[in-house]
Write a structure and sequence with these properties.
By secondary structure, this protein is of the alpha+beta class. The protein has 3 domains: 2-120, Potassium Channel Kv1.1, Chain A, CATH 3.30.710.10; 135-191 and 495-507, no CATH class; 196-492, 6 Propeller (Neuraminidase), CATH 2.120.10.80. The protein contains 12 helices and 31 strands. Strands 10-9-6-31 form a 4-stranded antiparallel β-sheet, with no helix packed on it. A 4-stranded antiparallel β-sheet has the order 11-12-13-14, with no helix packed on it. A 4-stranded antiparallel β-sheet has the order 15-16-17-18, with no helix packed on it.
Length: 509
């Protein structure tokens, strides 16, 4: 079933004809190698995203704008809506379109998609829609609950549902009579918990390694200290989240280069040792692919390593894989499209500009195009279908620059630079944002955090960690039954954060 979403205003057919004919277009939107000639002023009128994209561009003569993170089909629908005020919504595209429109802040399309979902709501799909939208009773109106929910045959026939909705209506009336701040702390309306948590583990702080662990609550923009003081300090290690456990791989404690691997139980907060690696690995690169933890390169206390190995948790065993083409410590790696990419690092003589990928099916490493800059102490992460290489040290300077690798074209392209230079930092993607955490900025160890969004191609400040540290490692964990132990208490959120989160919650319902 499909529906033509139409706004109640008359759009310009002339503008649409000019766009289709490619006349007087002053920009090209490029998505997945598909080019859309457009008029900037028309797109600016559709959503503030395009206004920010065009007006904040560092190059005033730029004509082609690459937009990662969505399909060309969704971009075609959004651009068509900008010109015609209408969009074709189907059961097959509504979820993807709603998510794309929300990212672009195209609220008119968001409303049309939400209305479409509401009209299609039925017993067969209500659970799926509930999982997609995380509907909050406390943020709905009592009139809606009375007119649309209480009158439902399914609710009327179920005493538990009937009681829940009746109580919700009473609570909504109660919330309306309270001061605004007090109302937001009510369980029915308080800001949501995040789906995932970013962990910052260990590192070098105050001239020595630390055992500090902080959890970042992206919905509250706050860090929570979850340190287990029974764990030994460790820096220059790697971290990975797999099967509900956090693994700390290799590293250095100021005296010993480790081949040991420690596993953190997120439920009991206990650390246990698992099988050691074949080699001692400090400044190691670590990632997860297809249920294995990979440890690549590093320094064993004597030489930089090209060797690599992987851990299978089911049998608690490390196995050697093919060695890399380069000796690499201070590098960083990530996974994209069933490949492991490792970039930069130090070979003992120079900071590296090279990069390569590993194919687990053939057990082979393949060199790819070199980066634009040499980068040791680099951060590498898969984001928006690209491999991002961020920051680091080029042998002379600590870098703010970042670049993204397109595996389809084997090319690197510069993206917007970070707010501050840094090397030997943590890097992860959470909530569709690329975060960089801590590190060394050329003068001092830092606790500051910033994040990048592909849609705006800009970096923004986030809440600082409590611990100043470099040579830390980060991972993202999800699916926890005890999630609240790693989140910031909602009752203690400052005023400005509560207001911001309340607005975000209201917009997402």
């Amino acid at each position: 079933m499909s529906e033509e979403g139409q706004l109640p205003y008359k759009s310009s057919s002339v503008n649409n004809e000019l766009c289709l004919e490619g006349q007087f277009c002053d920009a090209i939107i490029k998505v997945e190698d598909v080019e859309f000639p457009v008029h900037r002023i028309i797109l600016c009128n559709c959503t503030p995203y395009f206004r920010a994209l065009f007006t904040h561009c560092s190059d005033p003569d730029k004509q082609v704008f690459n937009i990662p993170g969505l399909s060309s089909e969704m971009m075609a629908l959004i651009i068509n809506f900008a010109y015609t005020g209408s969009v074709s919504i189907t059961g097959e595209n509504v979820v993807e379109l709603l998510m794309a429109a929300d990212q672009f802040n195209a609220m008119d399309i968001v409303k049309l998609c939400s209305d479409f979902l509401g009209e299609q709501l039925c017993p067969e799909n209500c659970v799926g829609i509930w999982q997609f939208t995380k509907v909050r009773l406390g943020l709905m109106t009592s009139d809606y609950l009375k007119d649309n929910v209480l009158s439902s045959e399914l609710v009327e026939a179920n005493s538990e549902c009937l009681s829940m909705i009746s109580n919700a209506i009473l609570d909504i009336h109660d919330l309306g009579s309270r001061p605004f701040m007090s109302a937001l702390y009510h369980p029915l309306a308080r800001p949501r918990l995040p789906h995932s948590i970013l962990l910052a583990i260990g590192g070098w702080s105050g001239g020595e390694p630390t055992n500090g662990i902080e959890a970042y609550d992206c919905r509250a923009n706050r860090w929570v200290n979850v340190t287990n003081n029974l764990e030994c300090p460790r820096a220059y290690h790697g971290a990975a989240f797999l099967n509900g456990y956090v693994y700390s791989v290799g590293g250095f404690d100021g005296v010993e280069h480790f081949n040991s691997v420690r596993r953190f139980d997120l439920t009991t907060h206990a650390w246990n040792e698992v099988a050691p690696m074949h080699s001692r690995r400090c400044y190691v690169s670590v990632t997860v692919l297809n249920g294995f933890i990979y440890a690549l390169g590093g320094h064993d206390g004597h030489v930089r390593l090209s060797s690599a190995e992987r851990y299978q948790p089911e049998i608690n065993q490390w196995s050697l894989i093919a060695p890399m083409h380069e000796q690499r410590s201070h590098a960083s790696c990530t996974t994209l499209n069933n490949r492991i990419y490792i970039c930069g690092g130090l070979n003992g003589n120079e900071c590296l500009q090279t990069a390569e990928y590993y194919n687990p099916e053939s057990n082979q490493w393949t060199m790819i195009s070199p980066m634009n800059s040499r980068r040791s102490g680099i951060g590498v992460i898969a984001y928006a279908d690209h491999v991002f290489a961020v920051g680091g040290f080029d042998g002379n300077n600590y870098l703010r620059t970042a670049e993204a690798y397109n595996p389809h074209t084997n090319t690197w392209n510069l993206v917007f630079s970070m707010l501050t230079p840094r090397s030997n930092f943590g890097i992860e993607v959470i909530d569709d944002r690329l975060f960089v955490v801590g590190g060394f900025n050329g003068f001092t160890t830092t606790s500051d955090v910033e994040y990048y969004t592909a849609l705006t191609n800009e970096w923004y400040e986030a809440c600082d960690m409590d611990i100043f540290r470099t040579d830390l490692s980060c991972c993202v964990m999800s699916g926890l039954s005890n999630l609240t132990e790693y989140t910031f208490p909602r009752d203690f959120l400052p005023l400005e954060d509560v207001l911001k989160l309340a607005m975000e919650s209201a917009e997402s319902t």
